[in-house]
Each structure stands twice: as structure tokens, then as C-alpha cells.
Amino acid sequence: MILRRAALTVLLSLALPFATQAQTVDAGGAKFETSAEVAGQKLVLNGAGVRYRAVFKVYAAGLYIKAKADTPDAIIKMDGAKRVQIKMLRDVDGKDLGKAFTEAMQKNMTPEDRSKTINGIFKFGQIFADIKRAPSGSNIQVDWIPGTGSQVFFDGKAAGEPIKEPEFYAALLRIWVGEHPADDNLKDAWLGKGKSR
Predict the structure, then answer these.
(1) C-alpha distance across the termini of the chain, in Å
(2) In the record, which residues are listed under signal peptide (predicted)?
(3) Which CATH architecture best describes the domain 25-190?
(4) pTM to 2 decimals?
């Protein structure tokens, strides 16, 4: 009986690293949990990849939604809570990061979209200007919380007020899954069609 219990303990200790490993996804050295909870809703990691600028890794990003989806339209139109999680892989000035995000949103907008999101884009840019610096290892989340809006979190702390317009969060998602994505390989990773380099 004692030997059987000892053998079981050894087997469990050997299996545990594999069980733990299976619950995260690696993207450029950054780990993403395969599930998350936003506003009491359980979400799944749809995909994670790396944003490159030239040959340099800038950040790893993961998308959490309520059910797996493999098209931009399905992701954007899906109801319920959502999360974009960004893990910085190099030091970036907050203002520069905010500018890059807002410019990427504008590249994927129609004039009609722009009129509905201009207020949110301004607020979003200001949040990053206020952050001042996004060092390597820092964690940024932008959650869509139904009934509240888009809330930015920097290293777990709320940054700025929620941006209420749902059109803003759709514009945010198009940074990575729009017709002119920030990184083609990252778009593919989010859609389950490959991994970022």
C-alpha cells in the first residue's frame, strides 16, 4: 500500500509539469493562459503571436473571446466580454505606443467608423501618453466589459476611464485582424492559421 502510494506520488509529480505546460501558450517567450475571466465571463485564448518591427520583437499579444473564431468578422461581431492582452518585449515610450495603436486603428477605418470612434481614439491615445513608458515585461490589457465599455489596465491597474462606444473596441480589434493589420503573422496567429515568427 505504501509502495503504491509512493509510486502514485512520483507519477503525479512527473505529470504535473506537462499539465501546467498545456495550460499556457508561448508567443515570443511570453506566456498566455489558455483561458481568462472578464466581468464574470469565462473566455478562451483564440490566438497569440508577436508584433515585430523590422527584425525586433515589440510585444506579444493574445486575444480572448467567449468561443473560438477563425475570421475577423466573427471575432468583431461576437457578443460578450473580450480581452486583448499585450506583453511588452522591449521598452517603448507610452506616447509612441499610443500613437502606433491609434494610427493602426485609423488605417482600418471607414469615414463613418472614424466619426463614431474619434472620441474613444483620443481618450485611448491620452491613456498611453499618461502611462509615459511601457517597459519590457509590462502587461497591458484592454477589456471589453458589456454595459461598461473598453477598460485599459496597465500591470493590473485600471488606466483612464472606460471608453463606452462599442465601435471603439471593434476599431481596436482591427489593429490586428483588419485589412491592414499591424503584423500579418500576428493576424494569422490570432485566427489560428499559424504562429508569429
Answers:
(1) 50
(2) 1-22
(3) 3-Layer(bba) Sandwich (3.50)
(4) 0.86
